[in-house]
Amino acid sequence: MFVFKAAVVGAGTMGGEIAHTIANADIPVVLKDVDQKFVDTGIEKARSLWQGRVDAGKLQDAELERKLGLITGTTDYSGFGDVDFVIEAVPERMEIKQVVFSELDEATPGHAILSSNTSSLSITEMGEATSRPDKVVGFHFFYPASVMRLIEVIEGEDTSPETTGAAISFAQAIRKMPIRCGEAPGFVVNRILNSSVSELWRYQEESGVDIKEIDKIVAESKAAPMGPFFLTDLLGLDTVLHVAEHLHESYGDRFFIHKRMQELVAAGDLGLKTGKGFYEHGN
């Protein structure tokens, strides 16, 4: 199945990046959120990514405007009647995602594939909220989606081979590298990543070493592009905490949960998106 038009539900940390990635491959995309200010933020994020290329002399202003014109912002489902592929990117709560999938089931044509950008939740459970569980699949980008090439294509119990194949083809069409995996908690990447990062969390909490020192050592060692605490701020502490809790519930104490992260989330300090997390982030 060829995707002539796509949609993204949720214009938060990832939504604008995902919309940019799709439009950058010359595929029209609808970007939806519950409030116009969130939609505007997502579109501005996409613009800023192209503007960076303009400033670097790698893109013309006219091309920026053409690509930006491929993104249509909305606060309702009126533009979803002819989409072929939808990516849900709302908060990592199953009850929220099931509501969205139920709405998408009604708002999109019967052939449309409904996918989730979830980093750890069950694709099967999301599919149960629809009349087409065979057309529900995981489609997990990595931050920043405009740069990171990997996409996890996650099969639920009811996902059809045709749906998986179409998702893999779409990932390639938007210049990404898909890997196919089952819906075990954490899938592939977060299960590997969190198994190592949770040990750094455990060490920091037990030793009291400054988080900046740990981030500096990790970055300088080139074991990762940045340290685990700064990365958590970029991803959003609420999202990272949810994944950590899910993995701890699934696999036990070998997946550690950092108490300070729990405290910050409880206080509403979620990292870059709120201006404060493990670090202070200026405007």
Number of strands: 8
Question: Given the helix and strand composition, which structural class is it?
Answer: alpha/beta
Order of helices and strands: EHEHHEEHEHEEHEHHHHH
Looking at how many chains there are and whether they match, the oligomeric state comes to single chain
- Spans where pLDDT lies below 50 across 5 or more residues: none
Strand order of the largest sheet: 3-2-1-4-5-6-7-8
Major pleated sheet: 8 strands, mixed
Attribute tags:
11 helices, eight-stranded mixed sheet, alpha/beta, 283 residues, globular
What does this structure look like?
The chain is of the alpha/beta class. It contains 11 helices and 8 strands. It has an 8-stranded mixed sheet, sandwiched between helices. The relative contact order is 0.10. The model has no long low-confidence stretch (mean pLDDT 94).
